[in-house]
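Review this chain:
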Amino acid sequence: MSPVTHFLTGWVIANTAHLDPKERAIVTLACVAPDVDGLGIIPELLTRHSAHPLPWFSLYHHTLHTLAFSLVVAVAGFLLAKQRWKTAALALFSFHVHLFGDLLGSRGPDGDQWPIPYLKPFSDQVNLVWRHQWALNAWPNFVLTMALLMAVIYLAWLRGYSPLEMFSSKADAAFVGALRQRIPKAES
């Protein structure tokens, strides 16, 4: 699944509990964290025609899709949050939802499946793969992303904050204000 889909998923998960903005950001980013290794695509693309190409994306993508890294993310969430156990548990869950999403829908355009080396670096014995995995650009991923986007918009309208709060409180307030102006809450 795309990083955007993982981001939206993480934010929806973060809204299943009463968390402060920092804790919501932690849970949201935990759902994106496994793809930090995907940043290797930048040096790979920049050096692909050079005498010394850096195949960092090809070699290392999905290397952080592991139980060990999920525990690092959960511990970081625990240390950074006020509601430590709740945030850490949701961060761990959010991380694993990312892995599940990748198992369902991250097959490459060439049909190649990326196995998830769940127990690395301790064992090479467990590589998670689902043989019915759909392609990254397949319609189920688009439908899921659109459903998550609608959920995010609804939650922003309902709760008064959106994922924009992680980047700018002014942009968040403007977005929620525009939503509530266009779709006013029904009077009780």
Summary: The chain has a mean pLDDT of 92. Residues 3-135 form one domain.
